[in-house]
Design a protein that fits this description.
The protein is mostly helical. The chain has one domain. The chain has a two-stranded antiparallel sheet. The radius of gyration is 21 Å and the shape is elongated. The mean pLDDT is 75.
Length: 79
């Protein structure tokens, strides 16, 4: 099975891979939007975040997120 595509000149063009959503312009804008929302939420609720129970809750929420992003989802432990 031929995985290459043929161009108009009859030659073989290299196979193109679709770009990742996160590396596209839309993904970049989405990440910036999420960062802005996160900053605004943290700024407006800073009194709750830096209290004793708020800090504990923040750590509990950050641990699963850090695990998923650092291992790129589950299944990334064996790489």
């Amino acid at each position: 099975m031929d995985t290459n595509t043929h161009d108009d000149d009859g030659g073989i063009a290299p196979e193109t891979h679709p770009r990742s959503f996160w590396k596209s312009r839309t993904g970049t804008v989405f990440i910036a939007f999420l960062a802005l929302i996160g900053f605004m939420l943290a700024y407006e609720h800073r009194a709750h975040i830096f209290s004793g129970t708020g800090l504990l809750l923040l750590l509990v929420l950050l641990c699963p997120a850090m695990h998923l992003f650092m291992h790129h989802g589950h299944g990334g432990h064996d790489k």
